[in-house]
Amino acid sequence: MSQPENETVSAPQPPAPAAPAAPVVIKSGGRGVGLFALVLAVLGLGASGFLFVQGQNLLKRQEMQFDQKISQAALGESQNAALLADNSRRLQSSESDIKQLQSDMQAQQAEAAAGSRALQELLKTRSDWVVDEAEAALNLAGQQLMIADNVPAAVAVLEGLDARLARFEQPQLLPLKQAVSSDLAKLKQRPFTDTANAALRLSRLEAAVGGLPLLADSSLRPPQAAAPAAAAPNAPWWRNAWNRTVSGLKGMVEIRHLNSTDALLMSPEQAFYVRENLRLHLLSARVALMQRQNDIYQNDLAASENAVRQYFDATTPAAQSWLREIAQLKTLQPGAGNVGDSLAASLKAVADYRQLRQGESVTQPEIGAASEAAASQPAAPAQTPPVSAPATPAASVPAAPAPAQASAVHRGIES
């Protein structure tokens, strides 16, 4: 076997101590190996490029999918917002419809109440109208008694009511007639105080306080000159002169008896407060008269009378007239009668009549409706339960407020 040309044979060398192993280079057949390595490198590069392109495509697809998901999410949020806005509009529309229904229901309830009142007025009998008029008259009389203690006006109202009730012969009005007659007799026997006239008289006395002369002013004024003695035509001249001299001396001296000297020592400021204190007593007496407080009224009048007798000149005509007026006012007794039970019997009779009529209006329509339903229904076996007729509108008429109102007026008068 022949050796290649490129190979050479070297002479044997002695072994070198601890030398590193050198790579073995095979120089024969190197072109095929290089070609194979080049092919492998090209394949690897192609595979790397293919993988790179596939990775880029995968990233692009994932990015597109992500963008699509974001777009879908944004679209879903916009759709949700539109749906929420639509629901809000529907809710507002529903609320407006509910409010409209509520207003319509209230209007229907008001119309139903008006219809019930109209039906109640139509179902009233002549006795009911008379009782309504009696209640109005009793309320008017009660107001006159409570506000102004005007017994004559209340008596006139009850007399007119008694005369009107006497023209009706219905037996259900008999308790009301008896009650009105009883209250009328009580009012005629009740003491009466003309409060308005007494208050006017007190106001005049209060205005006249400024014209009353003080005792100190009366003591300081000069004595009045005595009238000259008449001269006798047949008497001698010296006797006439003597009479004139004696009458002149009598007019120079005036003697008065005083129980207290305090009134003579008052200053102008104290005199002003004395008059104002007297006016306050009269004002308090007038207020007590309007409030029907007899004790306070009598005490203020007594204090006013004592002040006039102590600090003012009671011998003057103005003071005497003032004291006579005070004495007449002291005879009045405001609040002597009790107006709480003056109309109690009449108001109770009205309330009893209303309650009786209410019971009748509830019972009679139910019985009539049941009889009509039984007559219109065909014959049924004995074990069939009877059909209950519905309540007619007349049974649901609110007739209860009338007795309640009468009892409220009664309680107000009693208080």
UniProtKB/TrEMBL annotation:
Region annotated Disordered, chain positions: 1-20, 361-415
Pfam family, any one: HemX
Biased segments, Polar residues type: 1-10
Transmembrane region(s): 33-53
Coiled-coil regions listed: 84-111
Low complexity: compositionally biased ranges: 369-382, 389-409
PANTHER family: PROTEIN HEMX (PTHR38043)
Protein name: Uroporphyrinogen-III C-methyltransferase
